[in-house]
Amino acid sequence: VMSAGRTVSVEAPVGNDLWAAGERVSVDSPVGNNAMVAGQTVRLQPGATIGHDAKLAGDEVRSEGRIVHDLTIGARRAEIGGDIGGVVHASANRVTVLPNAIVRGDLIVRAPEPPVISPGAQVMGNVDFQRTGGGRWWLGWPALWMCLFLSLLALNLIGLYVAPTWFSRVAETLRTRPLLSLLAGVVVLIAVPIVIAILLITLIGIPLAVVLTAAYVIALVLAAAFVSYRIGLWVFDRLHRTGVSRWAAMLVGAFLVSLAISLPMVGGLIALAVVLIGAGALAVEWRDRRVRMQPA
């Protein structure tokens, strides 16, 4: 099962793997093999059984089901219960081991403070606590922002130098059809990997799959460059500064987009939105160019 939505509830048996993502994700049924679940709120209910490994990520993660092998959690707040047959790896700001927990392997915790192990909880292996910086994330944030800014700046410089007309056309598509670009980006992000997987099934389709994969990766990488350039132009438009150099717009846009993407908590969502709308604008511009090239 591969599912995504604002609210995802798995309440019937899954024979093999489960991949689920959403704002709120709840699993309350057997999963035959592995489970990979991500969301703002993730719940592995007492009725859930994971036949192999479970990997859970989110803001608040609570695991109370039975896991045959290992459990890996990445969260702001992690609560661990149920029966875990292997090792538990937990990276969070706060880790709590619930009273009904049975950890048959080691408990490895990376957090600012030691884990809170409730009375009645059983950890049969070793408890390995590794202290992290916790709230001092801001010490590394300037370096992350600078790396993102320089990378985005380099992409813009190369794009505007090699194909300035093409960059301008994609930026104009973002300005005139932002909603269509966003919808096209969703289609591109979901449909292209499916097409690549189908091509890989047949021997004759493998070369096409390789070419399509390369184009897909390039489009996703360039998406942020298109969006940052358009944002730079928009800023100068709002300031009523006409005739501004495209290099200045590119610099301002790269500065703002890299800042937004580097922000904690919301940076990932902003990066996803940037990739979707940028790749979608590229797809829309490519379609329009193909239409223009067709004979009347």
Structure description:
With 296 residues, the protein is α/β, with parallel strands linked by helices. The chain is built from six helices and 16 strands. Strands 1, 2, 4, 6, 8, 10, 11, 13, 14 and 16 form a ten-stranded parallel β-sheet that branches. Helix 1 runs antiparallel to helix 5, helix 2 crosses helix 4 and helix 3 packs across helix 6. The longest helix is centred in the last third of the chain and has 33 residues. The mean pLDDT is 84.
Measure the end-to-end span.
Answer: 46 Å
DSSP strand (E) fraction? 25-35%
Average pLDDT over all residues: 84
Question: Stretches where pLDDT falls below 50 for ≥5 residues?
Answer: none
Total helical segments? 6
Please summarize the sheet with the most strands. 10 strands, parallel
Class per helix and strand makeup: alpha/beta
Radius of gyration: 23 Å
What general form does the structure show? globular
The share of residues in helices is: 40-55%
Secondary-structure element order, N to C: EEEEEEEEEEEEEEEEHHHHHH
Short description:
With 296 residues, the chain is of the alpha/beta class. The chain has helices at residues 141-162, 164-176, 178-201, 206-238, 246-262, 267-293, and strands at residues 2-10, 18-27, 30-31, 35-44, 49-50, 54-63, 66-67, 71-80, 83-84, 88-91, 94-97, 102-103, 107-111, 116-117, 122-123, 127-131.
